[in-house]
Amino acid sequence: MTVGALGLLAAAVSTAVFPAVAGATPSGSVSLVAYSTPKPAYAALIKAFNATSAGKNVTFSQSFGASGSQATAVANGLPADVVNFSLAPDMNKLVKAGIVSAKWSATPTKGMVTNSIVSFVVRPGNPKHITNWASLVKSGVSVITPNPFSSGSAKWNLMAAYGAQLALGKTRAQATAYLTQLLKHTAAQPSSASNALQTFLSGEGDVLLDYEDDALYAKSKGQAVSIVTPPQTILIQNPVAVPTKASNPAAARAFVAYLLSPAGQRVWGKQGYRPVLPKVASQFKFPTPKKLFTIDSLGGWTKVNTIFFTPSTGVVAKIEQGLGVSTSSS
Amino acid sequence: MSSPWKWPLRILALGYLAGLVALPVGSIFFRAFQHGFGAAWDAVTTPDALHALWLTFVVVLIAVPLNTVFGVGMSLILARHRFPGAWLLDAFVDLPLAVSPVVVGIALVLVYGRSGWFGDWLAGHGIAVIFSLPGIVMASATVSLPYVVREVLPVLQEIGTDQEQAATTLGAKPFAIFRRITLPSIRRSLAYGVTLTTARVLGEFGAVVVVSGAIAGRTQTLTLFIQDGIENLNVVGAYAGAVILALIALGVLAILGRDTTSEGRKRRWRSPSDPSPSSSETPLLSTT
Amino acid sequence: MSPPPAVDLGVRPDGPIPNPFAHGLRRSVGRWAGPGLAVTYLSLLVVLPLAALVSKAFTSGFGAFWQAVSQPEAVAALKLTLIASLIVATFNALAGLVIAWVLVRDDFRGKQAVNAMIDLPFALPTVVAGLTLLSLYGPDSIFHLNVADTKIGIVVALAFVTLPFSVRSVQPVLAELDREVEEAASSLGATSSVVLRRVILPGIAPAMLAGAGLAFARAVGEFGSVVLISGNLPFKTEVASSWIYSLSQSDQLSAAAAVSVVLVVVALLVLVAIGLLRRRFDIGESV
C-alpha cells in the first residue's frame, strides 16, 4: 500500500516538476476540478478514456465540490488541467482571474459538455402529490435546495422556478414573490447538490430540487426516490474548459476531446446526463417537459447572476435576509 | 451526605456520558460493520482511501516533529529567559487553541494563497503551498502548535535551573546538559505533548478543509475522505474511515491514561492550570 | 515569588566571563539561532496569518468591516453561536460538576474506564465526533431521536466537544477539597444542601467558572462536529464558523476575515478573563 501511494505521489510530483511534453500520445497526470455531481460519471468516463489509445497513459487526480467553491479555489491557485463547472458564471470567474481564455465558449457546443434539467425528487409514491411548481409551496411541503451562494445547482433551481412562473404567464414581480414563497418552504440549504441529495436521502424534506442526472444517479444506486419532471423547467448547461496555464495541456485537451466525442457523450448519457451532441442525445429517451426554456431566455447568466445572486444585495440575498429576520423575530 | 444522593447522581452522570459519548461512539462501529467486515475493508482500501490514510500519516510525520522541536525550544526560551514581550510570545503560542480552525485556514490562505501576501513570490518561485502538501502541513502544525509548549513549559518552570547550573560549573557543554539533565526531566510531559499534538494533527478538519482543495488521491486527508464519503453516498467508507480515527483516538487515550494510579492522577490534577484543553493532563512532575 | 534567574541554556550569567570576545561569533550565532528559529516558526504559522487576517478585515476601511459583521446573516450566525455556546457552557458546567463528583466521591466497578472516557471527545477528530452524533441522533437514529438540522443538534455537538473542559476543570479541585470541613459542618447539624451551598460550591466555583470559560471559547470556534449535524440553514442553524467557511467558499474573503476577527476577539476576551480568574483565585500554577 505504501509503495503504491509512494508511486502515486512520485507521479504527482514528477508531473508538477516536469510538465508533460506534448507528444503523439499524451501521458502524465491530469488534475480535474469539477462541481459536485459528476463524480460517479467521471469514474466511468475516466475508465472509458483510459481504454482508448489517446488516454491509455493518462492518470487523473480529481476534486469535486460546490461549483462556486471550486471556481474560487482554482482562482486561488488550486491546480487544474480540466475544469467542469455547473454554470457559465463560474467559468467566467476564471476568465476574470486570467486562468481560462475568454474564448472558452467559442466551440461547437458553446463550451458546454453536458445538458440536464431541474427535476423534482420526491419520496416513493409521491405522497405529497408534487406535480408542478405550485405544489411546492402548498402548506406542509418542505423543500431542499442547496445554498445558492456556493452551489451552482441552487442557482439553476431558483432560475428554473423563476422562469417557470414567467412561462406560466406571471409577471416578474409575481415570479420574485414565488421565489420568496419557495425559499420560505425550504427546510435546508446544504452547501452543494451532492450534499443536498444526501440531506434528502437522510429523511429531510418532501421535495429535493435537483439536477435530473443526480436524481437518476440516486435512483440507480437503489435509493427509494421518485423523480417528477416539472411541466416547465430550465435547460441546464454545464461548461468545460482547459485552463491556459494547465500543467499538462496535451493530456487535458485529449480528455476534453474525448468528453465531447460521440463515445464520451454516450457515457455521459448512460450516467444520466443529456448529451450536448444532438446525434447522441437522440439515442437516449429523456422525458420532455411541456416547456423547456434556457437561461438566455431569462437574460443570460451574466445579467441573471448579478441581479439575483450578488451576495448581500442580490434579489435572492434580499429574500433570504427578509426571511431570516422574520424567522428570528417570530 | 452522599448516601441519599449517591445513586441518583451516579445514574445522572453515567447516563449523560453514555448518551453523549459512549453510545454515539459505539454506534459508528456498528454502522461501519453493519454490512460486514468485508464491505468496510473494501471501502478503506480503495486507492483514494489508502492515499488519504497515507497522506494523513505523512502530515503527522512532518508536522509533529516540527512542533516538537519548536515546542521544546519555545518552552526553553519562555522558561529560561526574561525579556520584554515574553507575555506576547506566550499569548501567540496559545492563540491557535482559542481560534476556530476555519479561521486558521483562512488566515493561512491570506498569507500563502495566490492572492495572499506571499502569493506572488511563491508563485514566482514555483512553490505551491495552499492546495498542496505544505499548506496541509502548515494548517495542521498551526492548530496543534500549543500542545507541546503547554505540557513542557510548566515542568521546566517547576524544575528550575539548579542542576543545569551545577553541570555548567562542572564544565558541561549546553547540548550535553540538555540531553543529560533537561530532557530526562521533561521526558514524560514531552511524551504527553507529542501524543496530544499527534491526535490533533491526525484529526484536523476545519483548517485543512480550507487549505487543501480536497483533491482525491492528492490532497485529501482522512478527515476529508470521511466528509466526502458522507456527501457522496459512500457511507460505509465514511464510517470505516471514522472507525480508523476512533481507534487511534482510543489508543491516544490509552497512552494519556497510563498514569492512572490514584496518586499519579492526584498529582496531575494539582496543576490544571493553563488555558489548554490538555490542562488536566499536566503530567506527574519528575519525582527524581 | 522570585523570578527564575535569567540563564541561557545553563550558561551562568554571574559566572566568570573574563573576555566577552572569547564567546566569539559562533557562540552568539548559537545563542540566537534557537530563539530566532522559534520566533520565525511562530511568525510564519501564527503571527503573520493573524496580521493578514486583521489587515484583510479592514482592507476596505472600518465601514466595510462593520457592514460585513452587521449584515443579517452574520449577526444571526454570531448570535446563534454565542447563545448556543453560553447554553452549552452553563449546562456542561453543571453536568461536569455531577460527573466530577461521581468520579471523585463515588466508587464503582469500571470507574477507571469512565474516567478515561471523559477525554475521548478531546482525542476524537471533530468530523468523527459529528459523524458519531449523526449516526445516533440523526435521521436514521435507532432511538428515533432526530436532532439533525436543528439548534438542539448544535447544542448536542458542542456539549460533546466541550465535555472534557467542564469535567477536568472541577475534578482536581473537588478532589482537593477538605472533607473534614464538610464533615464538621454536617456534625454541627448542617443539611447536605447547606454543606453544598456554603462549603463545596464556594470552593469549586472559580474552577467551574474557568472550565465553563474554556468550554465557551471552544464552542464559539467549533466547526467540524457541528457542520455535519446542523444542516447549515442560514438564520436557523448556521454557526459563525460555518458562515465564515461559506463566505470563504463564495469568494468573499474580506467578509470572512471580518467575521473571523470578531471570533478571535471573543476568544481572546474569554481567555483573558480566565487568566484573571485564575490569578485572582490562585487556581493553577502557570500563568
Protein architecture, described:
The complex is a heterotrimer of chains A (330), B (288) and C (287). With 330 residues, chain A is of the alpha/beta class. Helix content of chain A is 44%, strand content 18%. Chain A has helices at 2-17, 39-50, 67-75, 88-96, 133-136, 152-167, 172-184, 193-201, 212-220, 249-260, 262-270, 278-281, 301-309, 315-329; strands at 27-35, 57-65, 82-84, 112-122, 143-144, 186-188, 207-211, 226-228, 232-241, 274-275, 291-293. In chain A, strands 1, 2, 3, 4, 5, 6, 7, 8, 9, 10 and 11 form an 11-stranded mixed sheet that branches. Mean pLDDT of chain A is 88; it is low at 1-23 and 325-330. Chain B has 288 residues and is an all-alpha fold. Chain B has 14 helices and no strands. The two termini of chain B are 40 Å apart. Chain C has 2 domains: 21-57; 61-281, MetI-like fold. Helices cover 74% and strands 0% of the residues of chain C. Chain C contains 12 helices and no strands. Chain C is globular, with a radius of gyration of 24 Å. Chains B and C meet through helix 1, helix 3, helix 4, helix 5 and helix 7 of B and helix 1, helix 3, helix 4, helix 5 and helix 6 of C.
Task: Provide a brief overview of the structure.
With 288 residues, chain B is mainly alpha-helical. Chain B has helices at residues 2-33, 37-43, 47-80, 86-98, 101-112, 119-124, 133-143, 146-159, 162-169, 174-203, 206-212, 222-231, 235-256, 262-269. In chain B, 74% of the residues lie in helices and 0% in strands.
Protein topology:
The complex is a heterotrimer of chains A (330), B (288) and C (287).
Chain A: H1 2-17, E1 27-35, H2 39-50, E2 57-65, H3 67-75, E3 82-84, H4 88-96, E4 112-122, H5 133-136, E5 143-144, H6 152-167, H7 172-184, E6 186-188, H8 193-201, E7 207-211, H9 212-220, E8 226-228, E9 232-241, H10 249-260, H11 262-270, E10 274-275, H12 278-281, E11 291-293, H13 301-309, H14 315-329
Parallel strand pairs in A: 1-2, 1-3, 5-6, 5-7, 9-11
Antiparallel strand pairs in A: 3-9, 4-7, 4-8, 4-9, 4-10
Helix pairs in contact in A: 3-4, 6-7, 7-14
Chain B: H1 2-33, H2 37-43, H3 47-80, H4 86-98, H5 101-112, H6 119-124, H7 133-143, H8 146-159, H9 162-169, H10 174-203, H11 206-212, H12 222-231, H13 235-256, H14 262-269
Helix pairs in contact in B: 1-13, 2-13, 3-7, 3-8, 3-10, 3-12, 5-7, 5-11, 7-11, 8-10, 9-10, 10-13, 12-13
Chain C: H1 24-57, H2 61-70, H3 72-105, H4 111-117, H5 120-123, H6 126-137, H7 151-176, H8 179-187, H9 192-221, H10 224-230, H11 240-249, H12 253-281
Helix pairs in contact in C: 1-12, 2-12, 3-7, 3-9, 3-11, 6-7, 6-10, 7-9, 7-10, 8-9, 9-12, 11-12
